[in-house]
Amino acid sequence: MIATTRLTRRFGTFTAVDSLTLQVSPGEVFGFLGPNGAGKTTVMRMLAALIAPTEGDARVAGFDVRRDGHRIRQVVGILTEAPGLYRKLSARENLRFYAKLYGVRDPDARATAMLQRLQMEASQDVPVGRFSKGMTQKIAIARALIHDPQLVFLDEPTSGLDPEAAFLVREFIANLKAQGKTVFLCTHRLEEAERLCDRVAVFRRKILALDTPQELRRGRFGSRTLIELSRHDDTLVEAVRSLPFVAAVQWRKAPPSASPTLIVTLGDPRTQNPELVRRLVDRGAEIRFVREEQASLEQAYLSLTGSLNLD
Ligand SMILES: Nc1ncnc2c1ncn2[C@@H]1O[C@H](COP(=O)(O)OP(=O)(O)O)[C@@H](O)[C@H]1O
Ligand SMILES: [Mg+2]
Q: The pTM is what?
């Protein structure tokens, strides 16, 4: 659905996007995660054919961003940082206007359907200028989807929203995925990328990492298996340490009331955990729980980008 080759954008001598090569499949929710000023919006604007690349190429929904910009703008949906709505027009009037602009066959029916889906029929005749930020954002998303595009670009869709409105917007994005739409989601919010995206690119002028949220979380720190035991026994630590594939083992620091828990660092938990458990049981351990430690995506992100903000 999206394929870029060494896509580059400079502003004067400043390089905002440096040789980006990337593929996004149909039906994928792809997260573009990076701090403020990383170049996310610039990438999105190039892909949506709103600005031209300085170098490199991109194909979007089968079209070339350099040659077929007009076609791309017809077939993709885009939610930018500014909602692009007429404040004096009602929600319904805004949607009807954009439906006509995109040549939707029955603009009124389409506006009705979108208002229903967003559960906004009750406020459909209120001027958008009187809406809360959350409601405005819902209408802005409806606007971006008015022509039923297969590919949607969303730039920081929950930015500035209260938690409840942000939740609604995330539900809506999850819904798009269920409908088979391809979503390119720019965000600086880790939990949002983690919750919604099939794959995430950590980006700062270049791609620093690209994987599923689960793998990003895992990759950097090695895997750690947590084993909760019924009693403390230091001979078990030695038994585990002598296994050839174990990189480290230690007791978890926890209050005395908590169950004793071993933290075992190893390379490939899927194949090594069974042997680890067998060794412990052979040595008389009573195991209550075995689970994987979840390193946070935030740790991975911070270590990749170096900081939260460029500015
Ligand atoms: N039209 C422009 N002219 C000059 N510099 C720009 C322009 N647009 C973006 N930039 C610069 O490019 C960098 C990336 O911006 P942007 O793509 O908006 O980042 P993000 O969306 O990740 O916050 C920033 O340093 C920004 O100041
Ligand atoms: Mg931006």
A: 0.78
